Amino acid sequence: MAKIIIAGDAVVVKSSLKFEDLKRIAKYSPESLILKGGEDNKEDIFRIGVTGGEGHIGTYAAEFNSPSREGDGLATLTMSIVVSPDEDIKEVIADKLGTPMAHLAKLEDKLPHVLEWLNRERENLINGIAVVG
Q1: 38 confidence band (pLDDT: 50, 70, 90)
Q2: Domain carrying residue 78
Q3: Is residue 133 part of a domain?
Q4: Is residue 112 part of a domain?
Q5: What global pTM score does this model have?
Q6: What are 60-85's pLDDT values in tens digits?
Q7: Structural contact between residues 63 and 52, judged by C-beta atoms closer than 8 angstroms
Q8: Cα–Cα distance, 28 to 119 (Å, whole number)
C-alpha cells in the first residue's frame, strides 16, 4: 500500500511498486493500470500513470514521476499543497486524498500479479526465439 509523506508544503506519495515496473506495465498492459467500476464495471474510475513531468494524485488518477531516492526504486510522486497554519495538515490530506489513496491501493493489490504474468510471457517468448547463423 502506498504511503504519504509530508515535508513542509510538499506531499510525497510513495507506491509499494517500483517505478520501472509501473513503466513496464504501462507499456505492455496499460489497461491493467485502470480501476473499473460503475453499474456494468466498465466505467474508468481511477488510473495510474507514469510521467516525466510533475507527479500528481487526484480524484481520477495518480501520476508517478520518479523512483524513490532511497535506493529501493519505488515509484514516487511529489506535489505541493498549501495549508493554513491553523489547519491540521493530516486532516486536510486525509480529506483530499482519502478516496484516491483507496483507489490506488486497489490497483496496487492486483498489479504484482500482472507483473508476474508479463515477466512469464516475456520469458516464454525469449525462450522460444531461435537464433541461427
Answers
A1: confident
A2: 3-127
A3: no
A4: yes
A5: 0.89
A6: 999 999 999 999 999 999 999 888 88
A7: no
A8: 11
